[in-house]
Amino acid sequence: MSETTEVATSLGRGGVEVELRGLSRFFKETTALKSLSMRAEPGELVVLLGPSGCGKTTALRMLAGLDAPDEGNILIAGKDVTSLPAAKRNIGMVFQSYSLFPNMTARENVEFGLRVRGQKSKERSERSDEMLSLVGLSSMADRFPHQLSGGQQQRVALARALAIKPQLLLLDEPLSALDAKVRAQLREEIRRIQLELGITTFFVTHDQEEALALADRIAVMHQGRLEQLDTPLSVYSSPATEFVAEFVGTVNRLRGVVVDSETVDVELVGKVAYRSGQAMSPGSRVQVLIRPESLGVTPANDDGAEVLSRSFLGASTKLSIRNPGGSAIVVEVSVAEAAGVADSANVKLFARGEALLVRPAAV
Amino acid sequence: MATVTPDLQRGAGGEGSNVLRLGKPFRYTVLILVGAFFIIPIVASARFSFLGNNNSFTFSAYTQLFGTPQFWSTLWLSVKVGVGTVALTLALLIPTVIFVHVRLPRLRRLFESVSLLPLVIPSVVVTLGVITSFRNLPNIIYGTPVILALEYVVLALPYSYRTFDSAVQSIDLKTLVDAGQSLGAGWIKLLRFAILPNLRSGLLGASILTFAFCLGEFAVASLLSFTTFPVFLVQVGRLEASQAVALSLIALIFTWIPLALVMIVFSQRRGGRRGTGIESAIESAVAD
């Protein structure tokens, strides 16, 4: 049995179901959250993704009991905890800013939750050893926060949050203060621990890459509302709204004309397949949203489109193409395909995938 | 390994760099002059207090003072009022400042401004205001030195509030409170284990400043007819100059000893930790 599995067994829990029912929060004239409803399955990692001010942290703080909703209910494991104070919810939380108590060592920080629960010193010590070992910091147990790096501090904060055997784990942008390398490393570690412990987790971030890499499901939020709650693949490939399409990944917005119920004729690209729940009459003018990797380029002699610049990304190359009718078109192609077209050369675009969304053009 | 040091000799111009260009002798001269400005009066006072008849050296001013019952009773009264004032100040400051920082951060400036009012309102007005406010309280408060402690809480507020407030600002209080609550701590345990230990220097700074203020305040005590240590000092000064000077030195020492102790304790403790309001508190107290 692996160390983490042992810890999970010792914690004696799987995940719990969490349900948010119509949560709203108003600050004077601002609506921070508007009728947010969602459900997280036991053991699931749900990422709340959105730009600053979209209400994701407000939702998380309500779950933690650090803020109260003006409307709606929160159910954890089927129990309504809306009016329960934070101290009684048994929820572990890791914060964006370093939240370790400066007067305590890493071990004392991890033991804090157990100490306020009146656990004996021996039990506390065993638990903190277990948790510090889980996050790989056993050797730094006696260091004070100011003697630890940012990444180490967040690991201790994670160990501290898990030490109290929480029924739910909340992470509020825990990686945002870290540099890229530590961030990627810790992200994987958080996911590993979450999967092995099987604890239901909510993770707040504004970083789409982080969300796509971590989540079982992503809740994309915008202006206090839930735009879409789905798997990373669905959110990326079948966005429910234009906002989701544009916020998660890169998207080109091009003009087009509907050919039939499955095809649209897009400027500079030609015929592109699409799926639309909305009936589009043939001949109607539309806006077509399409991902850079759904487009390809071939050399051409006419003056339609021209390569403006290129960015080598390692496995692929991103080309910026001049669009005479609007903003530059971004195309992501293989390195070999990109090598076939020179800078400032005329190219022809073609579709190698479906359009993300097709919307009626603004009149 | 290359190190970057400020180039004091080749400043970018302006007054500051001109001063720095004058070099070490100038800086030491300034330091010595400023030091002399503070030390010479103290040394002269000490010398005067030890002068006997025919310029002989004597402890008589001190022995006479220590033998005066009023010396001990007034000192004891000032210490009692000081301790009471510190206790009351902390009881008011801790919840207020923490509540403002955690729940009403937008009102922080307002509270700070209010705390400065005793500096701009004449102390006689504050004294009368406090007396009027507590007029209906039982005699145990109104007719005893407790009223003096109540006065001093208000008058020392500009020093105590700012010192504690700057200590609170030096930590991310809101996140620490959130973290503690999410871990199951109620306010009492949160304050005891997580918040107050991190504000120790601010608490000490506020306490020392308040205590030093109480030990040196004359006007209000005299107005309310309490013979505290400073009032006794003035009374002695009218009769015996050398004793008054000796008394001033004793008062100075009584203020400096706790300050020095705290300074020593904190200079040993700080090793790597962030400093808070203690330095500024001590500096202000010494300057006072």
Tally of strands of chain A: 20
Shape of chain A: elongated
CATH superfamily of the largest domain in chain B: MetI-like
The number of helical runs of chain B is 16
- In the sheet with the most strands of chain A, the strands line up as 6-7-8-3-9-10
CATH class of the largest domain in chain A: Alpha Beta
The percent of residues in helical segments of chain A reads 25-40%
What is the number of helices of chain A?
A: 10
> What amount of the residues of chain A lies in strands?
25-35%
Provide mean pLDDT of chain A, rounded.
Answer: 89
Helix content of chain B: over 70%
Radius of gyration of chain A: 24 Å
What would the principal axes of the Cα set say about the shape of chain B?
globular
CATH architectural category of the largest domain in chain A? 3-Layer(aba) Sandwich
Low-confidence stretches of chain A: 1-13
Tell me the domain tally of chain B: 2
CATH top level assignment of the largest domain in chain B? Mainly Alpha
What does this structure look like?
The complex is a heterodimer of chains A (363) and B (288). Chain A has 10 helices and 20 strands. Chain A is α+β, with helices and mostly antiparallel strands. Chain A folds into 2 domains: 3-90 and 165-246, Rossmann fold (3-Layer(aba) Sandwich); 251-360, no CATH class. In chain A, helix 3 crosses helix 4 (121-134) and helix 4 packs across helix 5 (150-163). The longest helix of chain A has 18 residues, at 180-197. In chain A, 42% of the residues are buried. In chain B, helix 2 crosses helix 15 (241-269), helix 4 (69-103) packs antiparallel against helix 12 (200-216) and helix 5 (108-120) runs antiparallel to helix 9 (157-169). Chain B is globular and about 75 Å long. Chain B contains 16 helices and no strands. With 288 residues, chain B is mainly alpha-helical. The chains are: A alpha+beta (363), B mainly alpha (288). The A-B interface holds A 61, 64-66, 85-93, 95, 97-104, 112-113, 115-117, 144, 146-147, 157, 160-161, 164, 170 and B 171-172, 175-176, 178-186, 189, 193-194, 197-198, 272-274.
